[in-house]
C-alpha cells in the first residue's frame, strides 16, 4: 500500500546565489580562465558566446532540459547560444566541441552522453583557453582542471531513493524485478543502478533481468516485451527514466496485464507524461530528476567569464512522488 510522501531531498543545500566566492582577482573578459591555458577570447562585446552540445532528444526530460537552456541563454540575457544535438553519439559531441573551439566561443557547455573518453578534447579546449561547464552528466576524468563546474543531480542518490521506497513497500514479498537501464556507459545509467542495488541489498527483492532501453520510450517497450516473453513472474519494473517506464506500460498492457497493479513500476525523472501515468495509477513511484538547468548554467557561465571562482560541483535538488502527491503536483508542474 502506497503512502503519501513528498520527499524533499535536499541533496545539498546549495543556493546558486551563494555559489560564488567573490574573487579578489576578477579578470576582465580577456583574462585567463580558471582552467589555465591561453587567454580566453571572451565576451569583449559584453555578449557571451556559449557553445552547447546536447546529448540528443531521447526523452521528455531531455526536451525540458533543452527548452530550459534555450529559454535562458538568450540575447536579452547576454548570450549568443550555439546549440547542437549529438543524437546520443559521443563522436558527434566531440565534433561539436572541436567546432566550438575552432569558432573561438567564450564558453563550452555540454552534457556528456557517456562518462569516459573526454580527456583529449577537453585538453584541446583548455589549450585554447576556453572554459568548459558540464551540465546534467559528469565525465570520468582524473583531471578536474579540464572543466570549471559540473551542475546536475546526484544520480546515485536518485537510484537509492527509488530502491529505498521499493524496499519499504515490498520487502518480505519475494518480488522479482526487471531493470530497464539507461544508455550504456552514461553516468545516470551507471549511478542509478548502483544506488538502487545498494538500497535493496538485504531485502528479498531480486533483479532477475536487466537490459538497456537507451532512455527511449520505443526501446523501453521493446526490451519490456522481451522480458515478458522470457519471464512469467515479473512483479516490478525499475526503469532508469520515465520514458522507458512509459514504454514498459505499453508492453504490459499489450500483454493483457495492468501496469501499476499486476506489475509495479518505479521510474526516475517526473516529467509531465510520467507524472500523469503516476497519477493515473499506472506507475507506482517516481524520483525526480530536475531538468531546469538553464538558469544555473547562465549564472555559472557569467561568473566564469567574469573571472570569479565557482563551485566545482553544484548538486540540483530532487523530489520524489507517489500516486497521491503526483495528483497534487500535476496542475502546477513546470515540465
Ligand atoms: O541525464 C539525465 C537522463 O537523461 C534523464 O533521466 C533521461 O530521461 C535522459 O535521457
Description:
There is one protein chain. The chain is of the alpha/beta class and 335 residues long. Helix content is 36%, strand content 18%. It is built from ten helices and twelve strands. It has helices spanning 60-72, 90-103, 119-127, 155-170, 187-200, 217-230, 242-254, 272-279, 294-305, 323-329; strands spanning 48-54, 79-85, 107-110, 132-135, 149-152, 176-181, 206-212, 236-239, 264-269, 285-288, 313-315, 320-322. The protein has a six-stranded parallel β-sheet, with helices on both faces. Helix 5 links the parallel strand 6 and strand 7 (206-212). Helix 6 crosses helix 7 (242-254) and helix 8 crosses helix 10 (323-329). The longest helix has 16 residues, at 155-170. The model is unreliable at 1-41 (pLDDT under 50). It binds alpha-L-arabinofuranose.
Write the layout of secondary structure elements.
Layout (H helix, E strand, L loop, with lengths): L47 E7 L5 H13 L6 E7 L4 H14 L3 E4 L8 H9 L4 E4 L13 E4 L2 H16 L5 E6 L5 H14 L5 E7 L4 H14 L5 E4 L2 H13 L9 E6 L2 H8 L5 E4 L5 H12 L7 E3 L4 E3 H7 L6
Parallel strand pairs: 1-2, 1-3, 3-4, 4-5, 5-11, 6-7, 6-8, 8-9, 9-10
Antiparallel strand pairs: 10-12
Helix pairs in contact: 1-9, 4-5, 6-7, 8-10
Alpha-L-arabinofuranose binds next to helix 1 and strand 9.
Amino acid at each position: 500500500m502506497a503512502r503519501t510522501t513528498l520527499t524533499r531531498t535536499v541533496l545539498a543545500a546549495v543556493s546558486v546565489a551563494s555559489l560564488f566566492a567573490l574573487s579578489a582577482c576578477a579578470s576582465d573578459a580577456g583574462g585567463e580562465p580558471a582552467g589555465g591555458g591561453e587567454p580566453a577570447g571572451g565576451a569583449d562585446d559584453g555578449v557571451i558566446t556559449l557553445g552547447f552540445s546536447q546529448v540528443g532528444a531521447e526523452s521528455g526530460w531531455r526536451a525540458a532540459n533543452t527548452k530550459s537552456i534555450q529559454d535562458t541563454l538568450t540575447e536579452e540575457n547576454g548570450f549568443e547560444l550555439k546549440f547542437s544535438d549529438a543524437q546520443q553519439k559521443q563522436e558527434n559531441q566531440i565534433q561539436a566541441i572541436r567546432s566550438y573551439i575552432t569558432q573561438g566561443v567564450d564558453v563550452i557547455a555540454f552534457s556528456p552522453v557517456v562518462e569516459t573518453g573526454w580527456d583529449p578534447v577537453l585538453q584541446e579546449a583548455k589549450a585554447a583557453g576556453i572554459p568548459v561547464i558540464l551540465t546534467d552528466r559528469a565525465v570520468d576524468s582524473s583531471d578536474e582542471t579540464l572543466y570549471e563546474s559540473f551542475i546536475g543531480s546526484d544520480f546515485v542518490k536518485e537510484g537509492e531513493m527509488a530502491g529505498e521506497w521499493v524496499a519499504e513497500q515490498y520487502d518480505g514479498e519475494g518480488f522479482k524485478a526487471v531493470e530497464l537501464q539507461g544508455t550504456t556507459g552514461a553516468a545516470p545509467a551507471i549511478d542509478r543502478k548502483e544506488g538502487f542495488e545498494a538500497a535493496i541489498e538485504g531485502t528479498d527483492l531480486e533483479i532477475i533481468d536487466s537490459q538497456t532501453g537507451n532512455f527511449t520510450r520505443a526501446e523501453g517497450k521493446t526490451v519490456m516485451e522481451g522480458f515478458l516473453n522470457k519471464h512469467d513472474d515479473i512483479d516490478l519494473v525499475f526503469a532508469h527514466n520515465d520514458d522507458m517506464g512509459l514504454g514498459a506500460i505499453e508492453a504490459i498492457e499489450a500483454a493483457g496485464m495492468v501496469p501499476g497493479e499486476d506489475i509495479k513500476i518505479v521510474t526516475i525523472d517526473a516529467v509531465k507524461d510520467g507524472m500523469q501515468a503516476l497519477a493515473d495509477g499506472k506507475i507506482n513511484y517516481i524520483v525526480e530528476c530536475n531538468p531546469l538547468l538553464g538558469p544555473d548554467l547562465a549564472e555559472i557561465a557569467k561568473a566564469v567569464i567574469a573571472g570569479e571562482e565557482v563551485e566545482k560541483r553544484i548538486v540540483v535538488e530532487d523530489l520524489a512522488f507517489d500516486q497521491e502527491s503526483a495528483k497534487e503536483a500535476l496542475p502546477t508542474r513546470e515540465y
